[in-house]
Every structure is written in C-alpha cells, then in structure tokens.
Amino acid sequence: MSTNETLPAEPLIELDAGALQPHQESSQPNDPDNPPWGLLQGFMVWAISVALLLFIPLLLIMPYVAYRVVAHGSAEALATDPNLIFLSILGVLPTHILTFVLVWVVVTNRGRRPFWPLLGWSWPKSYGPWKTIGTAVVLLALGWLITHFLGGAETQLDQIIKSSPQARILIALLAAVTGPLVEELVYRGVLYSAVQRALGVTRAVVIVSVLFAGVHVAQYYNNFGVIAVIAVLSVSLTLIRARTGRLLPAYVIHFVFNGIQAMILILQPWLEKSQSLQNHAPGVLINFINRVLG
Asked: Residue 52: CB partners within 8 Å, gap ≥ 6?
C-alpha cells in the first residue's frame, strides 16, 4: 500500500453514540416526569375526580331523602339525620373506586401501558421508608402546633364525626385506606406529571398544591388553622414528589399522616375515658385529629 493512499476513518464517535442511545432509553423506560398523557388529560382527571366526589354521594342519598320526605312529610330534620350523614360518607367509597379506575384508564391507555412504574411507584435512593415515616410524624406534629396556636371554629367534619359512632369509624377508614391512595394518584401522580412536563417544576408545585388545598377548603372554610395545616401538607407532599421524582414517598407520608389520626379517632371513646386525657394537651390533640382528618 502506497503512502499516498488514505485509510477510511473509523466511525468511532458514531458507533459510541449509537451504542449509548439504547442504554439511555432502557435506563428509564417509564419516566414519571415524562408521562405519555398530556396537560389536558391531567386536568380532566382532576376535574372528573372532584365532580365524582360531589355527585356520587348525592346520588346515593337521594332514595333515602325521598323516603324520609314521603314518610314524614318534611325535610327539616334531614340535616342532622345520622343515617343520611352516614350514607353521604359511604358514597365516598364508590367515588374513590371510580376515580381509581379513571386514573388507571388514563395512565395505562386502557391496559396498553404499565400502571405503577409510570406513576413512580418505587423508592428513590435518597428517600427511603424510614425518612418518609419520619417526615409524616414531623408534619403531624407541626399540624398539631398550628391548630393549637391558631385555634378555630368547629368545622363541618367535626359535626359529621359527632353525628354517630358509625360515621366516625367510616371517616377514619376512608381517610386512612382509600383517601391517601386516590388523592396521590390524582394530584401528585397524573396531574403533577403532566403539569411539570408542560409548565416546569415550579409552576407544577404551585398549581398542584393550590388545587389540593383548595378542594379541602369547603370542609374547613371557617377554621383557618386547619386550612393552614392542609396547605402545609399539600406543599410538602408536592415538593417531595418534585424532589424525588417518585410518587411512593408522597403516598406513604400521606398514609401515615392520616393513618395515625384515624387510629386515634377510632380509639377516641376509650381514650377519653382514661385519666391521662384529663389534662389540656391531649384534649387539644383529639380536637386536632377531629378537625384535620379527611
């Protein structure tokens, strides 16, 4: 071979780039921060979930309301009827089930995509179970301090809890079992992922936090302390979702936050009988649990 002849250059850069591309794609095949659903779908899921929460319980109580009006010829006592209140709370269960199905349809495109991986249902390296549980306990203690110093009037939830033992137990179960799961799937799952990709992390944190807290204002409109606690919880959960890129830590914090309150709420009649609840501080704790759980 003569010295004038040149050898073809080997495409080292092209081969390396081509080899890296499949590796990068396979490292995160289901990125929660790059969802296959869009901004419109995210807000539609949120709007439908709120509409279901308003109308499904209403549909459930309508037959009972009609029966009471026919049987008694008046609807004056319905507002304080414990059976009606219990049925309205029971209506939240099918609402949560339908909302879960709605989220599943959007996330999986009717079974064509994986569900939990696309929502970030896994532990990040920097935020494990113990740190998550510790965060929930800190938020619960902070909530107690806020309601203790700010106080506030009796809320709608207070009245519901006092209506009957059955209502109190059902609220506790819904708040601990289905409530955190469905709310996190809607707000920090579907909605946050879509808003974050379209508008950025900062706007997503603000929008999702405001919407989550705003939905709860109707329950606690006359108690600024409880509204402040819900706002702190909302911002904290959304920031943790943004920081970790995963939904599971936010769910566990929400579950522990509500679960501790639900446990004490169920045990409340027995706790109030004990001598240890004669002083002021535990009484405030019970009051905080009654007001914030939801």
From this structure: 95, 98, 99, 102
